Amino acid sequence: MRVVSSANLTSLTESWLEDLRWCRTRRSNDFMTTDIITRDSGCCFDFRRTDVVTVTPWLAPIVWESTFDPVLMDAIFKPQNLTIAATVFAVGKYVQFLKDFLKTSEQFFFIGFNVHIYVFTDRPNDVPKVQLAPGRKVSVRVVQSSQRWQEISARRMEMVHTLLLELSDSTHFIFCLDVDSKFHGRWGSESLGELVAVVHPGYYGNPRSRFPFERRTKSRAYMAPSDGDFYYCGGAFGGSVDQVLALTQTCSKNYRDDEKEGVEAAWQEESHLNRYFWENKPSKVLSPEYLWQDFKPRNPEIRIIRFSGVIKNYAAIRPNV
Ligand SMILES: CC(=O)N[C@H]1[C@@H](OP(=O)(O)OP(=O)(O)OC[C@H]2O[C@@H](n3ccc(=O)[nH]c3=O)[C@H](O)[C@@H]2O)O[C@H](CO)[C@H](O)[C@@H]1O
Ligand SMILES: [Mn+2]
């Protein structure tokens, strides 16, 4: 397994995290290169952002509104006739979230692409019928419920892995999404990449020491105090079929192996996902625009909310507390 944890990268990352926290104090001199590229290319699209960090220390883009041209992105990707899969789990009472999830995906998620949404549920009869545009499809897969929400959430990794083993070459990219959410703005071709992570909306302004990584060495999701780039969310991630196949295989195996030893990571599959992304750097990082939370006031750097978790009464909808 490739583990990138050199002192260099760590110190670079620490200084970059400083940048993220103090990004608003940075001034235009730092961004002269961007000016020059804009002028020389003759591009009239203003993709400068000086208030946020838009590239990782390993040179992966961090996607924020106004860092890309959606028309140009679509002109590149649409002719490739891609199929984008999405997985969403609606087990037990979470089936109530499906209607809004599916309806809003029709308005905002990869419009103009072939889209195949796989709904995993124990209540197939309660899956709402939503009018779909041509080229878009919803399939239902029946799964077992569990008495523990932690298990429902964590087992998604292995079920997505099984699905991916069955998919033919005609599916190119996949996103795995939480169902208790709605789309509010474009989520499209700008998000495509081999391995795609979304920065968790709750922690992006925090220092690394406050990231809720698994800190017990007995778990396979363990992260040392000096480890970590971002804290990524479990509610949205994706990439090419091959890359997500590898990710789900590793995360589900590590979750299972922990389980055999009576260990459950602090945030279940989200903890294993964070460990995976530490060892396997995402090729593209999506800003918290791609998974906001309705209960959070919108911060000024969030110019658009594309996908956001709804406010829910955990006690009323989860099988356990
Ligand atoms: C914003 C974000 O990143 N959310 C993550 C977070 O909390 P959340 O509080 O958003 O977790 P959650 O209650 O939405 O559960 C995660 C997902 O599991 C499914 N589900 C859960 C319970 C249930 O009874 N039925 C059901 O179908 C459903 O798709 C749901 O969206 O922590 C979870 C725990 O590990 C997952 O990592 C979530 O992805
Ligand atoms: Mn959720």
TrEMBL record:
Mn(2+) binds at D178, D180. Binds 1 Mn(2+) ion per subunit. Keywords: Glycosyltransferase, Manganese, Membrane, Metal-binding, Signal-anchor, Transferase, Transmembrane, Transmembrane helix. It comes from the Eukaryota. The keyword Zinc-finger does not apply. InterPro entries: Glyco_trans_6, Nucleotide-diphossugar_trans. It is found in: Membrane. GO terms for biological process: carbohydrate metabolic process. It is a single-pass type II membrane protein. GO terms for molecular function: hexosyltransferase activity; metal ion binding. This is Globoside alpha-1,3-N-acetylgalactosaminyltransferase 1, like 2. GO terms for cellular component: Golgi apparatus; membrane; vesicle. Its main location: membrane. Belongs to the glycosyltransferase 6 family. The active site is at E270. An alpha-L-fucosyl-(1->2)-beta-D-galactosyl derivative binds at H200, E270. Coiled coil: none annotated. Its cofactor is Mn(2+). PANTHER family: GLOBOSIDE ALPHA-1,3-N-ACETYLGALACTOSAMINYLTRANSFERASE 1 (PTHR10462:SF49), GLYCOSYLTRANSFERASE-RELATED (PTHR10462). The keyword Glycosyltransferase applies. UDP-N-acetyl-alpha-D-galactosamine binds at F89, A90, V91, Y94, D178, V179, D180.
